[in-house]
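Review session, final week

We close the course with one last complete record, chosen because it touches almost every idea we covered. It is Indoleacetamide hydrolase, a protein from Aureimonas jatrophae with 475 residues. Go through it on your own first, then we will talk.
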Amino acid sequence: MPLSADESLAGGDATALGSAVREGRISAVEAMEAALDAAARLADFGAITLLDEAAGRAAAQRLDRLRAEDPSALDAMPFAGVPFLVKDLGSPFAGIPVHAGSRALAARLAASAEDSDFAARLRGTGLVPFGRTTVPEFGLSLSSEPQAFPPARNPLDPRLTAGGSSGGAAAAVALGIVPIAHATDAGGSIRVPAACCGLVGLKPSRGATPEGPDFANHLAGLASELVVARSVRDLRTALQAAGGRALGPMPDVAFADATPRMRIALVQTPGVAPERAAAVDAAARHLLAAGHAVETLEPTTLDEASREAGTVFDRIVCASLAGLFEALAIREDEVEPLSAAAAERGRRIGGAQVLRAIEAGARIARRMALLFERFDALLLPMLASAPPPLGAFPTDDADVDAQWRRMTRFAPGAVLANVAGLPAATVPFGTDGDGLPLPVQIMGPNGSDLRLLDLADALARERPFAHRFPLASLR
């Protein structure tokens, strides 16, 4: 039973779809069939690398049977029957293989038989996984163009990147195939794709969501997992469902309570396109008018910490990749040139440099904590420019430093949040002359995730982004 046009326009997100399934206005099977149809119809955008139609249909049928037997059985599932896609990089979801966009891993790794802690919590919300999204090989790019699969194209302009490394996830959500999708962030990989595609995304605080039982994507604290979504309310629900009691190695995060008046620091960044810098200024004015205190900081305030964070990111990512290659006996001729070069760099780095990088990350975290004694949040640009054309982040180039420079120029404030363990959200705040989103980034101290989402929600309500593709299940 499709929903009306008014319902679709008013709430085209996972919350709306979950409510419709619980109330019997659409079945979980109908929602799944709509998602599968959209996945096939929009396959040229390259968002999805694997579909498990049988598993998706079977899980949807189970939910419909549960509801038929007991109409209240789905009441505790905010995303009951919502089709869901899993990123090809991160904690495993049972039955969906994780190959990090690499043929080398595809030849070595089978799908996990069990959910990770994180996956189990998301399934508990009623989400129904049925496939896997595109990533750059080993996540080493801010564009999702693995040689093993077609590139993920931006739904707003297929000539442009959808971002990386959660580019396939963002493309699938922006295309309306699903309203919400799994994403991970070790250097902007949730926030950048969301920003490219007009979505909202949150990199949670370090330790806010579980990475167990094997912590395979932890990267010494750089990586966090959550989702990309069409609405802030979906982000909040996903965080509250998946967050807390991460069961090691980090202590539990205490989420700060909401506050009506926050101290916000506006930090512009040199090299950001004028239209995008203006969007950040406009967001600051709106928050000031809403009763928050806003203070402008010098553009160079975060320069030193950001440069040092880039070095920490390089050391940990390359050393981790070298360890993976050693553990699985991956040869350089099995992977893309950038991956081979990054792993070779990791082998040269050695344990002493990795330890120094971890120590440097701790110092950066302290420096940011001192800044957050004065402020509750930072407001800064998310992207320096519009999403570039496909090919702007080549992985057939073995120059690792050149790739990091390209990534830093495009998303200048992204890696700092990962190294310092801070929550950071992105939300579109208007569009440019080509109709592409003008995203802003909001960063806060550890545990301020929900407060950041409050600010993001205020901005999203002021300038809601008009998605070009309706949600398939609510059409």
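Two points worth writing down before the exam:
The mean pLDDT is 95.
The first helix runs from residue 5 to 10.
Good luck, everyone.
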